[in-house]
Amino acid sequence: MDRTVIAYVIYLVVSIGLTVWVARTLSRNGRVFLADVLHGNEKLADAVNHLLVVGFYLVNLGFVALYLSDDETITDTRGIFEALSTKLGVVLLVLGVMHLANVYVLNKIRRRGMMEREQIPPVPPQGWAAPTAGA
Length: 135
Description:
Layout: H1 3-37, H2 42-66, H3 77-119
Helix pairs in contact: 1-2, 1-3, 2-3
């Protein structure tokens, strides 16, 4: 088997494995944030979480597939390691950026929900006070 093909197979197996692991981690832990933001609506939190995971898979696996091709032919074992380190390093950076983007978005959604809850008074107003003339 050609060394380039071996490098491709290793790259795909490791990249897909990392993508699945990160997506599951985000899904499991992001659900807590979504449930908090959606005021305990578990069904809606699960649906939104699933949609986010699907989008994460599409973006990352699309990138992995696009980044698969290489112009150089690998001639030795050292070349396999060099190609894999470059490709996997870029994939890891993209996964990290996607992870940070997900955490950022979830945090923004959570903060917005907290702000909305703080704006609702705990009891209705008791009455109305007219403005004073000296103010």
